[in-house]
């Protein structure tokens, strides 16, 4: 099933209702692999789909044209969920040109080892005339691969944005004004938090570049999820906020527990934070997926990490979350740690090590309690929460 998103510009992608994991990021709502076809004097196809969904793409193309009439294949992104079908598509349509960025060429050669593909490199500022429409290319390195590229069609005020501005959300609806806006922004925030946080400096540079170019954009068509036709400015503003790593009066307590002692400490810290008026979430690593935890941390001003000591270290689930978070390089957050122990008690030291390695602001040496916390021990946790809450509320 195809969708015309602009005159003679069609969504021809595939919906993946079943995927539940994307590089360790949970996708309970599935995803889409968006591909776009422009029918003009010349016909251009933008990206393909994951290899398993080749038949979906071919069905959609046949609905609109004879695939062999496609003149140009634009490869905005070589990650395999968008290029997995390249060999089959190129063999079928025999395009006059396969256009990609300089880094895209290297990625195509590394992934597919092509021998006779009509590859052509395009750089920022290059254009391709299709007849009534023109494609303007803009390299967007490290959003989120080195090869990433935007394609802008000024006649339609349309930005085909590769993996930027997307969401993992399988739905029969194609546009932002057809879906629940709260759910849309929730999916978009999760996508940014888990994929693009590490590239926030590059996002800021890109947004500045787009502003300087004065691109007139009234629709953004990403490679995943919903197309922004009603409020493209909303997702651009959200990316500006997220890439600045702006936070609000919010704390997230992430913990794991063996026999509930560390959980009792977490609840006591929660009590102290709430006493200070801080919106606070308790997130048990046993029941919350790492990617959902990272999403909540995105706009939090403070994060607390709790784990009992196991084998002179921390519990595996906490190590998983902290390693994942460290790779995303969050900035500008307050942090502290806590944990119970039986006889050695190194967990707080290890948790503080992660905090320092991430460059977060350690606001306390941490609280560790032997065995089951008593009233005095829990009082220390409440005091940590109140101390942190006062600092959070004092920050702009």
Which descriptors apply to this entry?
single chain; 396 residues; alpha/beta; Metallo-beta-lactamase, Chain A; 2 domains; six-stranded parallel β-sheet
Task: Give the helix/strand layout.
Layout: E1 3-6, E2 9-11, E3 14-16, E4 21-22, E5 25-26, E6 31-33, E7 36-39, E8 43-46, H1 54-64, E9 72-75, H2 80-83, H3 86-93, E10 97-100, H4 102-112, E11 119-121, E12 127-129, E13 134-139, E14 149-153, E15 158-160, H5 181-196, H6 200-213, E16 219-221, H7 232-243, E17 248-255, H8 261-275, E18 279-284, H9 290-297, E19 300-306, H10 316-328, E20 334-341, H11 347-358, E21 361-362, E22 367-370, H12 375-394
Parallel strand pairs: 8-9, 9-10, 10-11, 15-16, 17-18, 17-19, 19-20, 20-21, 20-22
Antiparallel strand pairs: 1-2, 2-7, 3-6, 4-5, 7-8, 12-13, 13-14, 14-15
Q: Taking strands numbered 1, 2, ... along the chain, how are they ordered across the largest sheet?
A: 1-2-7-8-9-10-11
The CATH class name of the largest domain reads: Alpha Beta
Termini separation (Å)? 49 Å
Label the CATH architecture of the largest domain: 4-Layer Sandwich
What's the mean pLDDT score? 96
Query: Which oligomerization state do the chains in this entry correspond to?
Result: single chain
Number of domains: 2
- Rg of Cα set: 24 Å
